[in-house]
Design goal:
The chain has helices spanning 26-30, 34-47, 88-97, 111-117, 176-181, 237-243, 255-268, 297-312; strands spanning 4-10, 13-19, 49-50, 62-67, 72-77, 103-106, 150-156, 161-164, 194-201, 206-211, 229-232, 270-271, 274-275, 281-282, 293-294. It is α/β, with parallel strands linked by helices. Strands 3-2-1-4-5-6 form a six-stranded mixed beta sheet, covered by helices on one side.
Length: 313
């Protein structure tokens, strides 16, 4: 399964639905523009549960919150062009170009950031202060994971470690991470795209971290490092590069090529949204993957225009 949560604000407040199979390609779905979003919005308001509802307090791989009144779109994904370092900027540019007049934001905190935007107290989540699993910190090269854009983190505490990022960002371990990293191979330098990064300066007791995906309760990271200065760089890996002293120095993505790649991926995209005989969309599915529907010509026109607007020519 690849669960997703969709949240929509309306006259009666926020409502949410979950979909067991909708996470993969959510960013590409949303590139289809306002018409596609309108279908989702109507379906969620008609069939969703009032918040706090399903998915906002469960682990999901992707999610989106649409606030039509304020024209705000919050989204996050675990995979796809918007979560890949090489194509991230291009994907977000196309998403914004497909929604003129909307404020499109990345929810670095995942489902917990959607909850907070909708007015729910983050402290009400029982998982807020759960410690991450120590077994998540291991050398990904030894595990055979070291490929470009793989889901792992570069940590540079005077060295360069490539560690797993499958569950929680390593920053969530707090200072205990330094001891865990002692057992992980030092690779010296790394120059490929990754999903996240972390720089630790033990002498100055400073930490900087970033990610292209999401980390639930990301706002608790600083409190997990008492006595340290912790900076969240969002997705700005250039700050990690500057702080690392050359240990992390990825090649800067080609913006024009990335825009073309995301456009082509969106044009090829087959949405996993199931259409009922009456043309309505089934938004909550628990009976396995549904028949995939190729984006229609109207959606492809939106994608092509968004590519031009974003500077792709």
């Amino acid at each position: 399964m690849n669960p997703v949560v969709l949240v929509v604000g309306g006259p009666g407040g926020y409502r949410a639905v979950t979909d067991d199979w909708g996470a993969v390609g959510l960013d590409l779905d949303l590139m289809a523009g306002p018409d596609f979003a309108h279908v989702l919005t109507g379906g969620v308001l008609a069939h969703g549960d009032p918040l706090p509802g399903p998915g906002t307090d469960e682990d999901v791989q992707a999610g989106a919150l649409m606030d039509p009144d304020r024209r705000v779109l919050l989204l996050f994904t675990l995979e796809g062009p918007s979560a890949r370092m090489r194509t991230r900027r291009a994907a977000l540019a196309l998403l914004r170009a497909a929604r003129p007049g909307w404020d499109v934001r990345w929810a670095h905190g995942g489902r917990t950031q959607l909850r907070a935007y909708a007015g729910l107290d983050p402290a009400d989540d029982p998982k807020r202060n759960v410690l991450p699993w120590d077994g998540n910190v291991f050398d990904v090269v030894s595990a055979g994971w070291a490929v470009p854009d793989a889901d792992f983190t570069v940590a540079t505490p005077g060295r360069c470690h490539l560690v797993c990022h499958a569950f929680d960002h390593p920053v969530m371990h707090g200072p205990a991470l330094l001891g865990l990293l002692e057992a992980v191979t030092d690779h010296g330098t790394y120059h490929e795209p990754v999903a996240a990064g972390l720089h630790i300066d033990p002498e100055r007791r400073r930490v900087g971290w970033w990610l292209t995906g999401h980390q639930v309760h990301h706002d608790t990271a600083a409190a997990r490092w008492p006595g340290w200065t912790v900076k969240f760089w969002e997705d700005r890996w250039a700050e990690h590069r500057a702080a690392s002293g050359g240990r992390f120095d990825p090649t800067e993505p080609d913006g024009t090529a990335a825009l073309a790649d995301v456009r082509d991926e969106a044009l090829r995209h087959r949405s996993p949204v199931r259409h009922e005989p009456d043309g309505s969309v089934r938004l909550s599915r628990t009976d396995g993957p549904s028949r995939e529907i190729l984006h229609g010509e109207a959606a492809r026109r939106v994608v092509r225009q968004a590519h031009r607007t974003a500077g792709g020519g």
